[in-house]
Design brief:
Layout: H1 8-33, H2 39-58, H3 63-87, H4 92-116, H5 127-130, H6 138-157, H7 159-167, H8 169-174, H9 179-218, H10 224-248, H11 254-272, H12 278-308, H13 317-324, H14 328-340, E1 344-347, E2 350-353, H15 355-378, H16 387-393, H17 399-412
Antiparallel strand pairs: 1-2
Length: 436
């Protein structure tokens, strides 16, 4: 099962794909944040004619000359993209599409010419379309290692500058940097990383190594440094994992399996990331909806007691359902939750707020009416226009904001009579609160 460690050629392939994953994942973070994730795809397609021209000139399939040709063609493609964006009214997506399709078509034409010419066998050049990691040998991997190390070192040396470029290029220009030059250096490094990985991944799949590890890492962190480390790890594991799987599956290509492995990391990140994953977001959404419904019911109980006046201590399910427009089944479920939390007590004719429940309900109603008064006095809105907005925002007002609203009322001498008076609710006169 682990015969890969006994096969020198398989170890070369494993080393090469792992290095490729590290360099592509690292640079992919900057491309991702610059909203240029598809730049690698365009450059990879643009590099194909450079490979063909290098073969026609040198008549050799040696990796060095072919990579030089691919690098030159990739740089030309990147330059053309920038010219189209800056000198025409076309957007970046259109420029990427034009360069990708035109250069790739030119490369296919050159491949066909080579195939039908007497210059030599083109066998091996077509492998750059889909990649053939199994063809990597020691000299190829050494060259890839040098290029990958160069890419990583330069990216880390320019880390602060690239960070400024990604998040605030205007500020970078203001403190003396040249965003155009930095962008050119970044694009050159991306071109180099793409060209190095083309033999293993191919023109078509190479962009996945730039996009997927960076996108996966983005789910786990808000810090660029951490994102880069995670993307490099995901890229390395994807390269190594795909290579290992290709040795287990008979005649399965390494490049596609690397992308499949990378997609597994992306799927896990998409689902299980602690803050941005779908599971965490779903849990937060359900919890938020439950809290909003709980607070809405508390507010309805309080307002019902306010309207019925002294002497009334219990509220019926029907009256609350009519006030909130809620389904009685959902309302019963929420009241059962409030019962478990000790905020209400079940009575023969309905439910009654406990002291803790009255205090909680008073806070919700107070937030609602503070926001209503702010909108009426500051926004010059009528009372009939502010209830729905306040009904939404009351659940999400931080304590600092509530304090600011209270100070706003004091400074402007606004009438506090609309605010809830907890002592006006009959039967529970020990709860904290009162008029503002």
């Amino acid at each position: 099962m682990f015969g890969i460690f006994d096969d020198p050629n398989a170890l070369w392939v494993l080393t090469g794909t792992t290095l490729l994953g590290v360099s592509a994942g690292l640079l992919g973070c900057f491309a991702f944040l610059r909203r240029r994730s598809l730049l690698g795809d365009a450059i990879a397609h643009a590099a194909l004619p450079g490979i063909c021209v290098a073969f026609l000139i040198t008549q050799t399939r040696s990796l060095g000359p072919l990579l030089v040709g691919a690098l030159i063609a990739g740089l030309i493609g990147a330059f053309v993209i920038q010219v189209i964006i800056k000198r025409t009214k076309l957007k970046e997506d259109a420029a990427l599409g034009i360069v990708l399709s035109v250069f790739f078509a030119f490369g296919i034409v050159l491949l066909t010419i080579i195939q039908h010419s007497g210059a030599g066998n083109q066998s091996g050049l077509d492998k750059y379309l889909f990649g053939q990691a199994a063809s990597l040998i020691g000299s190829d991997v050494r060259l890839m290692a040098i290029c990958a190390a160069l890419v990583c070192v330069l990216a880390l040396l320019f880390f602060k500058e690239f960070k400024l470029l990604c998040f605030d290029s205007g500020f970078a220009a203001g403190i003396g940097f040249r965003p155009g030059l930095l962008d050119g250096i970044l694009m050159t490094l991306i071109v180099l990383a793409v060209v190095v990985g083309m033999q293993a991944m191919g023109v078509i799949l190479m962009s996945a190594m730039l996009i997927i590890p960076a996108a996966s890492a983005r789910f786990w962190t808000e810090r660029l440094g951490t994102m880069i480390v995670l993307a490099a790890i995901f890229g390395a594991l994807s390269g190594a994992g795909g290579t290992f799987l290709s040795t287990l599956a008979f005649r399965m290509p390494t490049g596609p399996l690397i992308v499949v492995t990378s997609s597994v990391f992306f799927t896990v990140s998409l689902l299980a990331a602690p803050r941005k994953g779908l599971i965490a977001k779903g849990y937060h959404l359900i919890a938020t909806r439950g809290r909003v419904q709980r607070e809405n019911v508390l507010r309805s109980l309080y307002e019902e007691l306010e309207e019925t006046g002294p002497g009334t201590r219990t509220v019926t399910i029907a009256s609350v359902a009519g006030r909130r427009g809620m389904n009685e089944s959902n309302l019963r479920s929420t009241l059962e939750r409030l019962l478990r939390e000790g905020l209400v007590i079940r009575e023969p004719d309905g439910f009654r707020l406990t002291e803790a429940g009255l205090e909680a309900a008073h806070g919700v109603v107070r937030n609602h009416r503070l926001w209503e008064m702010f909108l009426m006095y500051e926004g010059q809105l009528g009372a009939d226009h502010v209830d729905r907005d306040a009904d939404t925002i009351e659940h999400f007002l931080p304590r600092e904001t509530v304090g600011e609203l209270e100070r706003f009322l004091e400074i402007h001498g606004l009438e506090p009579r609309l605010l809830p008076n907890v002592h006006a609710v009959d039967g529970i006169d020990k709860a904290e609160g009162g008029t503002a």
